[in-house]
Amino acid sequence: MSAEKTKKTVPYTVPIGPVHPALKEPVMFTFGMEGEIVRTVDFAPGQTHRGIEWMGMRRNPVQIVHLTDRVCGICGIVHSISFARAVEQIVGIEVPERADYIRTILHELERIQSHLLWAGVAAHELGFDSLFYLAWRVREESMDLIENLTGNRVNYGIIQVGGVRRDISDEQRPLIEKGLAYYEGLLDQMATLFLEDSTIRMRCRDHGFLSEDDARKLCTVGPSARASGLNMDVRQDYPYCAYGDLDVKAILPPAETGGPRGDVYDRIIVRLLEIGQSVGIIRQCLDAMPAGEILWEPKMAKLLAACKKADGEAIGRVEAPRGECMHYVRMAGKEAPESWKIKASTYSNLMSWIPMLQGEQLADIPIIVASIDPCLSCTDRVTVVRDGKPDILTKEDLTRLSREKTRRLMQ
Amino acid sequence: MARLPMVPELLKQLFSRPATNAFPSRHLPPSVTGFLAKVASGEATIHPPVPTPPKFRGKIVYDREACIGCTLCLKVCPAHAIEFIPETKRIRIYITQCIFCSQCNDICPKDALHMSPDFLLATENRYAESQIVE
Amino acid sequence: MTPDIPFIIIGAVLVALFGIVIGLFLMGFDRIVAARMQARIGPPITQPFTDIRKLFAKENVVPENAIPWMFNLAPVLALASAIVILLYLPIGGFTPILSEGGDLILVMYLLTVPALALVAGGFASGSPYATVGAQREMVTMIAYEFPLAIVIIAIAWKLAAAGIALPFTLASIQANPIWGLVGPLGTIGLLILLVVLLIVTPAELSRIPFDTPEAETELAGGILVEYSGKNLALFSLTQGVKTVAMASLVVALFFPYSLAAFIGLAGISGAVIDILFFIALITLVAFVSVSVVRVSMARFRINQVVSVYWVYLAIAGLTGLLLVMADQIIGVI
To answer: What whole-number distance in Å separates Cα of residue C307 and Cα of residue B59?
Structure first.
């Protein structure tokens, strides 16, 4: 809805963004308010476009893998695996089994830290800072573990096209075991602190509602979709890495807690349960991990030569902590890919904000916006500037542009 | 009845040690280098930094003697942080641009590049001596 | 007795200084205790003093849409009225400086003045966040007035029923500690009233969970969003003085004890002991009703604030009042 039209139908508008304490990343909201009630919702992403795909199309796959780590500050490995899997399919690389298991372990460790980060942010949005500090403090354990395994806390740099760059040594196994035991011991406490607290329940139960039908129609993914009752998880539906060998089931809010209702509270439940699920998956991986190589080709020069020869296109899909993440890569006999397209999970979740926010109170905006765990810097793939001013592309413009682009790629 | 499960945890935390990693010095010293010199001579104490794990990827170390100037590292550096100097047939690395991926370490045929555990690299001048390795 | 004008002026200045210094101390104490409860180190206790000093050195920005005279007047009004409250409250066992001029009812009304000044300042800022914040502050004010009134009336009624003259004056409350006048049933009633008053305190001071007018995450500071420099410093000082005033009110109503009299000290040393004891008491009250409450729960929505005060606390307060009354009736029989 355009700004003028909004003004006519509601008493006043409240802008939130592009930079606002309710938002951890830039996005521009315009709310049409009636008293404290949100009547209309409009938002404009594209405030933090970084041109990362443009950079990638001027680099070779070995360089891009490290760029993908920086697509997202939280779920870096998701993008690396997704991109590596796309290139592996094009080049025809078979990833060694051990590497697949190591990828899975790190993928799940990342999910633990990402969900704990989200839990902290959610608590902060509710004005519950003590819980925020507690969640981020216990998150440190997984960050330290990741740092030990990969060499860095945030930009792991462990994925390589064709495998992983570092093995998990026998000395590191007890550290992982210790970390897993720590989180197992913590799960009950986290569940009590988040789910049994009356003030959190008052703020989250039956707010930010997204029906199963809306979730399906708006292509919601990840924990947000599962909280609305959609049984979907890429790890279960299209297993990749080692997930095919493991027992992974999509987690829906259990019936004991009032079963999928699709509110903010259910999204908290799903994410907390997924922390426990990740711990279980890592356990399974450690038990089943075979010995062997970790790279398809340890000599980078040979790997680059193989990539240069490759011709074709592929999609790499993974289940990021926020939902399905997808990388489309097209190689055409050059060092750099001809096309590289990232679809971060938040991209699919943005539209579900609109049904969630309508009819809610102004006070609930921060927690509802945060409840899909938005990751906007990863999502923003385009910023429209015409004559030095920001502009808006309509649905027709987008359809025309994507058709033109597909034709260009088909040539 | 309202339940506040956080309260016992908070009262417990009130009487336990804070989890914060203390800043190296209690207050911002007038001169950081002066403070570090005092620490070295034993006049001042410093909160020890959090130890880095083995194989941590910090500031890059370059073995100029071992390098043969093959420029393979330039090919894989994602950040274009490495420059080749044709006159000396050696490389120069700009730390402000480096993204600490250690990909150049992997590809170096002579094992001339390594990652050190140094991570306190912030400075105001991106061309300062500490920010260029050659 | 005609009030001695020079005495009042000197006393008022002293009380203002006391309120500001102790208010900032309480803010620092609250920050450090809250930090420790959250497993953080927290700032040094002098941090609020440093902040205020810095704010006074900063530029005072008046937004384009603001009504300048009201925008600039509001902080002064807020601080002045907060200090005036202190002049009516007994501090450290001393008779209030303006004790002849007013009683508890006046204090109750004065407590709303800083909040009204905030509202005026919020509306004068011309920002949508401040406007929403000001509306919420008014609603919060209306919400907590009722339980606050119940507590005050319950205590005054008890004093009147016990045959004490002028039950609404703080001097009589000070002279007759309320706990000594009631039986077991009344003690339970008074405990409930104490809890009600302790829960009214965070709303009066705009702290979590009742900080909806400021609500950092959605309103970015709400009422105070446009304030900077000197004006913000004055509002911070008001916050400190209000903390002292509210805690003093709790102490005056429920703990009007004197340590010096108990251990038999008199003169200067007795006065010092009493002041220190009083500071310890208000620190304790601030710890319980501000620090512990604000770290242990999430922020309420504005409709929840109203229902908490009008339904739950009103019921609790009335129960307390009825228990005190029942106690009186049983006592008479």
So the answer is: 58
C303–A21 CB contact, under 8 Å: no
Interface mutation target, options B10, B12, B16, B23, chain C, most CBs of C under 10 Å: B10
By CA distance, what is C40's nearest residue in B? B18
* In chain B, where the domains are located: 50-134
Contact B14 C296 (CB under 8 A): no
- Which chains neighbour C (Cβ–Cβ under 8 Å, 3 or more pairs)? A, B
- Enumerate long-range contacts of C160-164, CB under 8 Å, 24 or more apart: C161/C328, C162/C328
Question: Residue A14 domain-assigned?
Answer: no
Instruction: Judge if ipTM > 0.90.
Output: no
Residue A366 lies in a domain: no
Is residue A290 in some structural domain? yes
- Range B38-52 burial, b when 16+ CB lie within 10 A, else e: beeeeeeeeeeeeeb
For position A165, which CATH number holds?
Answer: 1.10.645.10
pLDDT value at A99 more than 60:
yes
Return the residue of A nearest to C127 by Cα: A14
Q: Is there a contact between C298 and A126 if contact means CB atoms under 8 Å apart? A: yes
**Is residue C133 very low, low, confident or very high in pLDDT (cuts 50, 70, 90)?**
confident
In tens, the pLDDT along A218-262 reads 889 989 888 888 888 888 888 888 888 888 888 888 877 777 888
**Domain residue limits at A324:** 52-345
Domain positions in chain C: 5-332
pLDDT at position A1 over 50: no
Find the closest chain B residue to C298 by CA distance.
B4
Tens digit of each residue's pLDDT (9 = 90 or more) over C264-287: 777 777 778 778 888 888 888 888
As a whole number, mean pLDDT of residues B59-74 equals 88
Q: Does domain B50-134 have CATH number 3.30.70.100?
A: no
| Residue A3 exposed, middle or buried by CB count within 10 Å (0-12, 13-18, 19+) | exposed
The answer to whether position A67 is within a domain reads yes
